[in-house]
Fold this sequence. Notes:
Elements: E1 4-9, E2 12-17, H1 24-32, H2 42-61, H3 67-81, H4 100-117, H5 130-134, H6 140-176, E3 181-186, E4 189-195, H7 196-218, E5 223-224, H8 241-253, E6 258-259, H9 263-268, H10 271-297, E7 308-309, H11 327-350, H12 361-385, E8 391-392, H13 394-403, H14 406-415, H15 417-430, H16 434-440, H17 446-453, H18 461-471
Parallel strand pairs: 5-6
Antiparallel strand pairs: 1-2, 3-4, 7-8
Helix pairs in contact: 1-4, 2-3, 2-4, 2-6, 2-8, 3-4, 4-6, 6-7, 6-12, 7-10, 10-11, 10-12, 11-12, 14-15
Amino acid sequence: MSSCRIERDFLGEVPVPSAALYGGFTARVSESFKISGQTIHPLFIQTLAEVKKAAAETNNELGLLDDKVYEVIIKALDEVLEGKHSEMFPLDVFQAGAGTPWNMNMNEVVANRANQILGYPIGEYVPVHPNDHVNMSQSSNDVIPNTIRVTSLRLVSHLLDSLNQLEVSLGAKAVEFRDIMKSSRTHARDAVPITLGQEFSAYASMVKAHLVNTRNSADPLSLIFLGGTAAGTGVNTHPDYSDLVIKHLSNITELDLSQAKDKIHLTQFMSDFMHLINALSAFCVDIVKVNNDLVLMSSGPRTGLSEIQLPPVEPGSSIMPGKVNPSIIEAVNMVCFQVQGNRLAVENAAKSGLFDLNVYTPVIAFNLFNSLEWLTNAINALDLRCIQGIEANREVLEGYYTDSNAMVTLLSPLIGYIKASELARTSLETGINAGELAVTNGYITQDDLDAILSTPTGPNLHIVKKIKEKGD
Protein backbone atom coordinates (compact mmCIF):
# COMPACT_ATOMS: atom_id res chain seq x y z
CA MET A 1 0.00 0.00 0.00
CA SER A 2 1.37 3.42 -0.93
CA SER A 3 2.08 5.86 1.86
CA CYS A 4 -0.80 7.99 3.06
CA ARG A 5 -1.32 11.20 4.96
CA ILE A 6 -4.17 11.49 7.42
CA GLU A 7 -6.70 14.28 7.03
CA ARG A 8 -9.54 15.03 9.39
CA ASP A 9 -13.08 16.26 8.91
CA PHE A 10 -16.15 16.26 11.14
CA LEU A 11 -16.65 12.55 10.39
CA GLY A 12 -13.21 11.68 11.66
CA GLU A 13 -9.91 10.66 10.10
CA VAL A 14 -9.52 9.74 6.43
CA PRO A 15 -6.36 8.40 4.73
CA VAL A 16 -5.29 10.18 1.55
CA PRO A 17 -2.44 9.12 -0.75
CA SER A 18 0.56 11.22 0.27
CA ALA A 19 1.19 12.73 -3.17
CA ALA A 20 -2.46 13.37 -4.01
CA LEU A 21 -3.50 16.95 -4.61
CA TYR A 22 -7.06 16.05 -3.75
CA GLY A 23 -7.98 15.75 -0.09
CA GLY A 24 -10.15 13.98 2.42
CA PHE A 25 -13.50 14.78 0.81
CA THR A 26 -12.43 13.32 -2.54
CA ALA A 27 -10.80 10.33 -0.88
CA ARG A 28 -13.99 9.48 1.01
CA VAL A 29 -16.09 9.78 -2.15
CA SER A 30 -13.64 7.70 -4.18
CA GLU A 31 -13.92 4.91 -1.65
CA SER A 32 -17.68 5.13 -1.20
CA PHE A 33 -18.77 5.35 -4.85
CA LYS A 34 -16.92 2.66 -6.76
CA ILE A 35 -19.82 2.05 -9.10
CA SER A 36 -19.26 2.43 -12.84
CA GLY A 37 -15.60 3.25 -13.34
CA GLN A 38 -16.82 6.10 -15.56
CA THR A 39 -15.47 9.59 -15.03
CA ILE A 40 -17.01 12.79 -16.35
CA HIS A 41 -16.10 14.34 -19.69
CA PRO A 42 -12.73 16.15 -19.44
CA LEU A 43 -14.29 19.31 -20.88
CA PHE A 44 -16.44 19.50 -17.76
CA ILE A 45 -13.32 19.55 -15.56
CA GLN A 46 -11.83 22.30 -17.71
CA THR A 47 -15.03 24.34 -17.54
CA LEU A 48 -15.27 23.82 -13.78
CA ALA A 49 -11.76 25.27 -13.46
CA GLU A 50 -12.88 28.26 -15.52
CA VAL A 51 -15.88 28.80 -13.25
CA LYS A 52 -13.53 28.76 -10.25
CA LYS A 53 -11.23 31.20 -12.02
CA ALA A 54 -14.12 33.58 -12.73
CA ALA A 55 -15.16 33.33 -9.08
CA ALA A 56 -11.63 34.10 -7.86
CA GLU A 57 -11.34 37.10 -10.16
CA THR A 58 -14.71 38.39 -8.97
CA ASN A 59 -13.96 37.90 -5.26
CA ASN A 60 -10.63 39.66 -5.69
CA GLU A 61 -12.21 42.55 -7.57
CA LEU A 62 -14.78 42.91 -4.77
CA GLY A 63 -12.02 42.98 -2.14
CA LEU A 64 -13.06 39.66 -0.62
CA LEU A 65 -9.98 37.65 -1.65
CA ASP A 66 -6.56 39.14 -0.93
CA ASP A 67 -4.09 39.48 -3.77
CA LYS A 68 -1.60 36.85 -2.57
CA VAL A 69 -4.23 34.11 -2.20
CA TYR A 70 -5.94 35.19 -5.41
CA GLU A 71 -2.75 35.04 -7.47
CA VAL A 72 -1.75 31.58 -6.32
CA ILE A 73 -5.28 30.22 -6.84
CA ILE A 74 -5.16 31.53 -10.40
CA LYS A 75 -1.77 29.83 -10.94
CA ALA A 76 -3.14 26.52 -9.72
CA LEU A 77 -6.24 26.85 -11.88
CA ASP A 78 -4.18 27.72 -14.94
CA GLU A 79 -2.23 24.49 -14.46
CA VAL A 80 -5.50 22.55 -14.46
CA LEU A 81 -6.56 24.38 -17.61
CA GLU A 82 -3.25 23.42 -19.23
CA GLY A 83 -4.17 19.77 -18.70
CA LYS A 84 -1.95 19.18 -15.71
CA HIS A 85 -3.16 17.17 -12.70
CA SER A 86 -5.88 15.41 -14.74
CA GLU A 87 -5.27 12.24 -12.71
CA MET A 88 -6.40 14.14 -9.62
CA PHE A 89 -10.04 14.10 -10.80
CA PRO A 90 -10.94 10.40 -10.41
CA LEU A 91 -14.55 10.54 -9.26
CA ASP A 92 -17.21 8.19 -10.55
CA VAL A 93 -20.12 9.88 -12.34
CA PHE A 94 -22.54 8.09 -10.00
CA GLN A 95 -21.87 9.89 -6.76
CA ALA A 96 -23.43 11.97 -4.04
CA GLY A 97 -26.17 14.28 -5.28
CA ALA A 98 -25.81 17.79 -6.72
CA GLY A 99 -22.23 17.13 -7.85
CA THR A 100 -20.80 18.24 -4.49
CA PRO A 101 -17.94 15.73 -4.87
CA TRP A 102 -16.87 17.28 -8.20
CA ASN A 103 -16.97 20.74 -6.68
CA MET A 104 -14.97 19.74 -3.61
CA ASN A 105 -12.53 17.71 -5.71
CA MET A 106 -11.64 20.88 -7.62
CA ASN A 107 -11.55 22.97 -4.45
CA GLU A 108 -9.10 20.54 -2.79
CA VAL A 109 -6.82 20.17 -5.81
CA VAL A 110 -6.59 23.93 -6.30
CA ALA A 111 -6.06 24.66 -2.60
CA ASN A 112 -3.38 21.99 -2.20
CA ARG A 113 -1.56 23.01 -5.36
CA ALA A 114 -1.74 26.68 -4.34
CA ASN A 115 -0.24 25.89 -0.95
CA GLN A 116 2.40 23.73 -2.60
CA ILE A 117 3.38 26.63 -4.89
CA LEU A 118 3.72 28.84 -1.81
CA GLY A 119 5.97 26.27 -0.14
CA TYR A 120 3.47 24.90 2.36
CA PRO A 121 2.68 21.18 2.81
CA ILE A 122 -0.39 19.74 1.12
CA GLY A 123 -3.23 18.46 3.24
CA GLU A 124 -3.05 21.22 5.86
CA TYR A 125 -4.91 23.87 3.81
CA VAL A 126 -2.96 26.83 5.07
CA PRO A 127 -2.87 29.58 3.92
CA VAL A 128 -5.29 28.58 1.13
CA HIS A 129 -8.41 26.69 2.20
CA PRO A 130 -10.67 24.77 -0.26
CA ASN A 131 -13.94 26.08 1.24
CA ASP A 132 -12.97 29.49 2.60
CA HIS A 133 -11.00 30.65 -0.44
CA VAL A 134 -11.44 28.47 -3.55
CA ASN A 135 -15.18 28.02 -2.93
CA MET A 136 -15.82 31.59 -1.76
CA SER A 137 -19.25 32.95 -2.81
CA GLN A 138 -20.17 29.57 -4.27
CA SER A 139 -22.16 26.42 -3.63
CA SER A 140 -22.13 23.12 -5.49
CA ASN A 141 -25.77 23.92 -6.21
CA ASP A 142 -24.92 26.81 -8.52
CA VAL A 143 -21.39 25.85 -9.58
CA ILE A 144 -22.20 22.40 -10.94
CA PRO A 145 -25.37 23.07 -12.99
CA ASN A 146 -23.80 26.18 -14.49
CA THR A 147 -20.67 24.23 -15.37
CA ILE A 148 -22.95 21.71 -17.09
CA ARG A 149 -24.63 24.53 -19.00
CA VAL A 150 -21.36 25.97 -20.31
CA THR A 151 -19.90 22.53 -21.11
CA SER A 152 -23.06 21.67 -23.05
CA LEU A 153 -22.82 24.90 -25.05
CA ARG A 154 -19.30 23.95 -26.11
CA LEU A 155 -20.18 20.38 -27.00
CA VAL A 156 -23.29 21.41 -28.91
CA SER A 157 -21.22 23.78 -31.06
CA HIS A 158 -19.28 20.76 -32.36
CA LEU A 159 -22.54 18.94 -33.03
CA LEU A 160 -23.90 21.89 -34.98
CA ASP A 161 -20.76 21.92 -37.14
CA SER A 162 -21.27 18.21 -37.86
CA LEU A 163 -24.94 18.68 -38.72
CA ASN A 164 -24.02 21.51 -41.06
CA GLN A 165 -21.48 19.35 -42.87
CA LEU A 166 -23.95 16.48 -43.14
CA GLU A 167 -26.49 18.84 -44.69
CA VAL A 168 -23.87 20.01 -47.19
CA SER A 169 -22.98 16.45 -48.18
CA LEU A 170 -26.60 15.40 -48.59
CA GLY A 171 -27.25 18.55 -50.61
CA ALA A 172 -24.30 17.73 -52.87
CA LYS A 173 -25.75 14.26 -53.48
CA ALA A 174 -29.12 15.86 -54.24
CA VAL A 175 -27.45 17.88 -57.01
CA GLU A 176 -25.47 14.88 -58.27
CA PHE A 177 -28.61 12.71 -58.46
CA ARG A 178 -31.05 15.41 -59.62
CA ASP A 179 -31.72 13.87 -63.05
CA ILE A 180 -32.03 10.24 -61.97
CA MET A 181 -35.65 9.17 -62.24
CA LYS A 182 -37.03 6.46 -59.97
CA SER A 183 -40.30 5.28 -58.59
CA SER A 184 -41.19 6.65 -55.20
CA ARG A 185 -42.70 4.21 -52.73
CA THR A 186 -45.65 4.69 -50.42
CA HIS A 187 -46.84 1.85 -48.20
CA ALA A 188 -43.61 0.19 -49.46
CA ARG A 189 -45.28 -0.11 -52.91
CA ASP A 190 -44.58 1.55 -56.26
CA ALA A 191 -45.91 5.09 -56.29
CA VAL A 192 -45.44 8.28 -58.30
CA PRO A 193 -42.22 9.26 -60.09
CA ILE A 194 -39.56 11.06 -58.11
CA THR A 195 -35.87 11.70 -58.61
CA LEU A 196 -33.18 10.25 -56.41
CA GLY A 197 -31.98 13.83 -56.06
CA GLN A 198 -35.31 14.93 -54.64
CA GLU A 199 -35.14 12.23 -52.00
CA PHE A 200 -31.66 13.31 -50.95
CA SER A 201 -32.76 16.94 -51.01
CA ALA A 202 -35.48 16.03 -48.51
CA TYR A 203 -32.85 14.37 -46.32
CA ALA A 204 -30.74 17.53 -46.43
CA SER A 205 -33.77 19.68 -45.57
CA MET A 206 -34.52 17.44 -42.59
CA VAL A 207 -30.99 17.83 -41.25
CA LYS A 208 -31.15 21.60 -41.62
CA ALA A 209 -34.42 21.73 -39.68
CA HIS A 210 -32.86 19.74 -36.85
CA LEU A 211 -29.77 21.94 -36.89
CA VAL A 212 -31.98 24.97 -36.28
CA ASN A 213 -34.01 23.15 -33.64
CA THR A 214 -30.90 21.98 -31.79
CA ARG A 215 -29.34 25.43 -31.85
CA ASN A 216 -32.55 27.01 -30.56
CA SER A 217 -32.84 24.37 -27.84
CA ALA A 218 -29.31 25.11 -26.65
CA ASP A 219 -29.71 28.90 -26.52
CA PRO A 220 -31.31 29.02 -23.01
CA LEU A 221 -28.21 27.34 -21.56
CA SER A 222 -26.38 30.65 -21.94
CA LEU A 223 -28.47 31.98 -19.03
CA ILE A 224 -26.22 31.63 -15.97
CA PHE A 225 -27.25 31.74 -12.31
CA LEU A 226 -23.88 31.80 -10.55
CA GLY A 227 -24.27 33.68 -7.31
CA GLY A 228 -27.49 31.86 -6.49
CA THR A 229 -25.48 29.59 -4.14
CA ALA A 230 -27.43 26.93 -2.24
CA ALA A 231 -31.07 27.65 -3.11
CA GLY A 232 -30.87 30.46 -5.65
CA THR A 233 -31.32 33.19 -3.05
CA GLY A 234 -27.71 34.39 -3.20
CA VAL A 235 -26.91 33.79 0.47
CA ASN A 236 -23.25 34.49 1.40
CA THR A 237 -22.51 36.51 -1.74
CA HIS A 238 -21.78 40.17 -2.40
CA PRO A 239 -24.67 42.06 -4.10
CA ASP A 240 -22.50 42.66 -7.15
CA TYR A 241 -21.11 39.14 -7.35
CA SER A 242 -23.52 37.68 -9.92
CA ASP A 243 -23.05 40.39 -12.53
CA LEU A 244 -19.28 40.37 -12.16
CA VAL A 245 -18.76 36.61 -12.14
CA ILE A 246 -20.78 36.21 -15.34
CA LYS A 247 -18.78 38.99 -16.97
CA HIS A 248 -15.52 37.28 -16.01
CA LEU A 249 -16.76 33.85 -17.09
CA SER A 250 -17.85 35.26 -20.45
CA ASN A 251 -14.38 36.70 -20.97
CA ILE A 252 -12.65 33.47 -19.95
CA THR A 253 -14.82 31.16 -22.05
CA GLU A 254 -15.35 33.59 -24.93
CA LEU A 255 -19.04 32.74 -24.82
CA ASP A 256 -21.97 35.16 -24.81
CA LEU A 257 -23.34 34.46 -21.34
CA SER A 258 -25.95 36.47 -19.48
CA GLN A 259 -27.54 36.44 -16.04
CA ALA A 260 -30.73 34.47 -15.49
CA LYS A 261 -33.67 36.52 -14.26
CA ASP A 262 -34.72 33.96 -11.65
CA LYS A 263 -31.90 32.02 -9.99
CA ILE A 264 -34.31 30.11 -7.75
CA HIS A 265 -36.13 28.82 -10.84
CA LEU A 266 -32.98 27.44 -12.47
CA THR A 267 -31.69 25.96 -9.22
CA GLN A 268 -34.81 23.80 -8.99
CA PHE A 269 -35.74 23.01 -12.58
CA MET A 270 -33.59 21.16 -15.13
CA SER A 271 -35.94 21.53 -18.10
CA ASP A 272 -33.36 23.48 -20.15
CA PHE A 273 -31.32 20.27 -20.33
CA MET A 274 -34.46 18.36 -21.27
CA HIS A 275 -35.13 20.69 -24.20
CA LEU A 276 -31.67 20.05 -25.59
CA ILE A 277 -31.68 16.28 -25.24
CA ASN A 278 -35.23 16.21 -26.65
CA ALA A 279 -33.86 17.93 -29.74
CA LEU A 280 -31.11 15.32 -30.00
CA SER A 281 -33.63 12.52 -29.63
CA ALA A 282 -35.90 14.02 -32.29
CA PHE A 283 -32.97 14.16 -34.71
CA CYS A 284 -32.17 10.53 -33.92
CA VAL A 285 -35.71 9.53 -34.89
CA ASP A 286 -35.33 11.10 -38.34
CA ILE A 287 -31.74 10.09 -39.07
CA VAL A 288 -32.55 6.46 -38.21
CA LYS A 289 -35.38 6.65 -40.76
CA VAL A 290 -32.96 8.00 -43.38
CA ASN A 291 -30.42 5.33 -42.50
CA ASN A 292 -33.04 2.63 -42.87
CA ASP A 293 -33.97 4.04 -46.29
CA LEU A 294 -30.33 3.84 -47.33
CA VAL A 295 -30.04 0.26 -46.10
CA LEU A 296 -33.07 -0.78 -48.17
CA MET A 297 -32.02 1.20 -51.25
CA SER A 298 -28.59 -0.46 -51.11
CA SER A 299 -29.89 -3.93 -50.25
CA GLY A 300 -28.66 -6.87 -52.27
CA PRO A 301 -26.60 -6.61 -54.33
CA ARG A 302 -28.31 -9.53 -56.11
CA THR A 303 -31.44 -10.14 -54.08
CA GLY A 304 -32.33 -6.63 -52.92
CA LEU A 305 -33.20 -3.26 -54.43
CA SER A 306 -29.60 -2.28 -55.23
CA GLU A 307 -30.62 1.26 -56.21
CA ILE A 308 -27.55 2.77 -54.60
CA GLN A 309 -24.17 1.52 -53.50
CA LEU A 310 -22.68 2.41 -50.10
CA PRO A 311 -18.92 2.69 -49.73
CA PRO A 312 -17.50 -0.47 -48.11
CA VAL A 313 -15.69 -0.02 -44.80
CA GLU A 314 -15.08 -3.59 -43.65
CA PRO A 315 -15.64 -7.23 -44.59
CA GLY A 316 -19.21 -8.00 -43.54
CA SER A 317 -19.07 -11.60 -42.43
CA SER A 318 -16.92 -14.14 -40.68
CA ILE A 319 -18.58 -16.97 -42.61
CA MET A 320 -19.77 -15.48 -45.93
CA PRO A 321 -16.85 -14.45 -48.17
CA GLY A 322 -17.27 -11.21 -50.09
CA LYS A 323 -20.20 -9.96 -48.04
CA VAL A 324 -20.22 -6.22 -47.30
CA ASN A 325 -22.61 -4.79 -44.73
CA PRO A 326 -23.91 -1.22 -44.12
CA SER A 327 -21.66 -1.09 -41.06
CA ILE A 328 -21.44 2.67 -40.58
CA ILE A 329 -25.21 3.00 -40.70
CA GLU A 330 -25.60 0.20 -38.16
CA ALA A 331 -23.16 1.91 -35.78
CA VAL A 332 -24.87 5.29 -36.16
CA ASN A 333 -28.27 3.77 -35.47
CA MET A 334 -26.93 2.15 -32.31
CA VAL A 335 -25.68 5.54 -31.14
CA CYS A 336 -29.13 6.97 -31.82
CA PHE A 337 -30.78 4.21 -29.79
CA GLN A 338 -28.41 5.00 -26.91
CA VAL A 339 -29.10 8.73 -27.12
CA GLN A 340 -32.82 8.04 -26.87
CA GLY A 341 -32.17 5.92 -23.79
CA ASN A 342 -30.05 8.73 -22.36
CA ARG A 343 -32.96 11.09 -22.93
CA LEU A 344 -35.13 8.97 -20.65
CA ALA A 345 -32.44 9.02 -17.94
CA VAL A 346 -32.30 12.83 -18.15
CA GLU A 347 -36.09 13.04 -18.00
CA ASN A 348 -36.23 10.89 -14.87
CA ALA A 349 -33.49 12.97 -13.26
CA ALA A 350 -35.13 16.27 -14.21
CA LYS A 351 -38.51 15.34 -12.73
CA SER A 352 -37.05 13.93 -9.51
CA GLY A 353 -36.02 17.20 -7.89
CA LEU A 354 -37.44 17.93 -4.45
CA PHE A 355 -38.31 21.37 -3.14
CA ASP A 356 -35.46 23.83 -3.68
CA LEU A 357 -32.88 21.68 -5.47
CA ASN A 358 -32.51 18.98 -8.08
CA VAL A 359 -29.75 16.70 -6.80
CA TYR A 360 -29.50 14.57 -9.94
CA THR A 361 -27.28 16.88 -11.97
CA PRO A 362 -24.43 14.31 -12.19
CA VAL A 363 -26.50 11.82 -14.17
CA ILE A 364 -27.91 14.64 -16.30
CA ALA A 365 -24.37 15.76 -17.13
CA PHE A 366 -23.15 12.24 -17.86
CA ASN A 367 -25.97 11.40 -20.26
CA LEU A 368 -26.14 14.81 -21.93
CA PHE A 369 -22.38 15.06 -22.55
CA ASN A 370 -22.19 11.51 -23.87
CA SER A 371 -25.15 12.11 -26.16
CA LEU A 372 -23.64 15.28 -27.59
CA GLU A 373 -20.20 13.79 -28.15
CA TRP A 374 -21.28 10.37 -29.42
CA LEU A 375 -23.83 11.87 -31.79
CA THR A 376 -21.24 14.33 -33.11
CA ASN A 377 -18.76 11.51 -33.77
CA ALA A 378 -21.46 9.31 -35.30
CA ILE A 379 -22.59 12.05 -37.68
CA ASN A 380 -19.00 12.69 -38.72
CA ALA A 381 -18.56 8.99 -39.51
CA LEU A 382 -21.87 8.83 -41.39
CA ASP A 383 -20.95 11.85 -43.47
CA LEU A 384 -17.34 10.96 -44.25
CA ARG A 385 -17.55 7.18 -44.55
CA CYS A 386 -21.02 6.76 -46.00
CA ILE A 387 -22.92 9.74 -47.45
CA GLN A 388 -20.04 11.28 -49.39
CA GLY A 389 -19.25 7.98 -51.10
CA ILE A 390 -22.76 6.90 -52.11
CA GLU A 391 -23.11 6.00 -55.77
CA ALA A 392 -26.31 5.57 -57.78
CA ASN A 393 -26.94 2.41 -59.78
CA ARG A 394 -28.49 4.27 -62.70
CA GLU A 395 -29.45 1.26 -64.81
CA VAL A 396 -31.25 -0.38 -61.92
CA LEU A 397 -33.13 2.81 -61.07
CA GLU A 398 -34.13 3.36 -64.69
CA GLY A 399 -35.38 -0.21 -64.97
CA TYR A 400 -37.49 0.12 -61.84
CA TYR A 401 -38.90 3.41 -63.06
CA THR A 402 -39.94 2.32 -66.53
CA ASP A 403 -41.37 -1.00 -65.32
CA SER A 404 -43.15 0.33 -62.25
CA ASN A 405 -46.68 1.58 -61.90
CA ALA A 406 -45.32 5.09 -61.50
CA MET A 407 -45.99 5.40 -65.23
CA VAL A 408 -49.66 4.61 -64.71
CA THR A 409 -50.04 7.55 -62.33
CA LEU A 410 -48.61 9.85 -65.03
CA LEU A 411 -51.13 8.60 -67.54
CA SER A 412 -54.17 8.77 -65.27
CA PRO A 413 -54.99 12.49 -65.85
CA LEU A 414 -55.01 11.83 -69.61
CA ILE A 415 -56.82 8.52 -69.94
CA GLY A 416 -58.80 8.38 -66.70
CA TYR A 417 -58.49 6.34 -63.54
CA ILE A 418 -60.34 3.25 -64.86
CA LYS A 419 -58.22 2.82 -67.99
CA ALA A 420 -55.07 3.55 -65.96
CA SER A 421 -56.02 0.82 -63.46
CA GLU A 422 -56.53 -1.65 -66.31
CA LEU A 423 -53.10 -0.73 -67.69
CA ALA A 424 -51.53 -1.35 -64.28
CA ARG A 425 -53.07 -4.82 -64.09
CA THR A 426 -52.09 -5.70 -67.67
CA SER A 427 -48.56 -4.38 -67.16
CA LEU A 428 -48.14 -6.54 -64.07
CA GLU A 429 -49.48 -9.62 -65.87
CA THR A 430 -47.51 -9.20 -69.11
CA GLY A 431 -44.33 -7.49 -67.94
CA ILE A 432 -44.82 -4.77 -70.58
CA ASN A 433 -44.52 -1.29 -69.12
CA ALA A 434 -47.62 0.85 -68.93
CA GLY A 435 -46.31 3.51 -71.28
CA GLU A 436 -45.85 1.04 -74.10
CA LEU A 437 -49.30 -0.44 -73.48
CA ALA A 438 -50.89 3.01 -73.56
CA VAL A 439 -49.35 3.72 -76.96
CA THR A 440 -50.21 0.23 -78.30
CA ASN A 441 -53.84 0.58 -77.17
CA GLY A 442 -54.07 3.99 -78.80
CA TYR A 443 -54.68 5.87 -75.57
CA ILE A 444 -51.85 8.31 -76.33
CA THR A 445 -49.24 8.85 -79.02
CA GLN A 446 -45.55 8.16 -78.65
CA ASP A 447 -44.92 11.91 -78.89
CA ASP A 448 -47.33 12.49 -76.02
CA LEU A 449 -45.58 9.82 -73.98
CA ASP A 450 -42.22 11.41 -74.71
CA ALA A 451 -43.59 14.80 -73.62
CA ILE A 452 -44.80 13.28 -70.38
CA LEU A 453 -41.46 11.61 -69.68
CA SER A 454 -39.50 14.77 -70.48
CA THR A 455 -40.75 16.37 -67.28
CA PRO A 456 -38.55 15.12 -64.41
CA THR A 457 -41.33 13.95 -62.11
CA GLY A 458 -44.21 13.71 -64.53
CA PRO A 459 -46.57 16.11 -66.28
CA ASN A 460 -48.14 19.06 -64.61
CA LEU A 461 -51.68 20.02 -65.46
CA HIS A 462 -50.44 22.51 -68.05
CA ILE A 463 -48.85 19.70 -70.10
CA VAL A 464 -51.93 17.50 -69.64
CA LYS A 465 -54.16 20.33 -70.90
CA LYS A 466 -51.99 20.80 -74.00
CA ILE A 467 -52.08 17.10 -74.87
CA LYS A 468 -55.84 16.93 -74.40
CA GLU A 469 -56.40 20.04 -76.54
CA LYS A 470 -54.23 18.53 -79.29
CA GLY A 471 -56.30 15.35 -79.17
CA ASP A 472 -59.55 17.29 -79.37
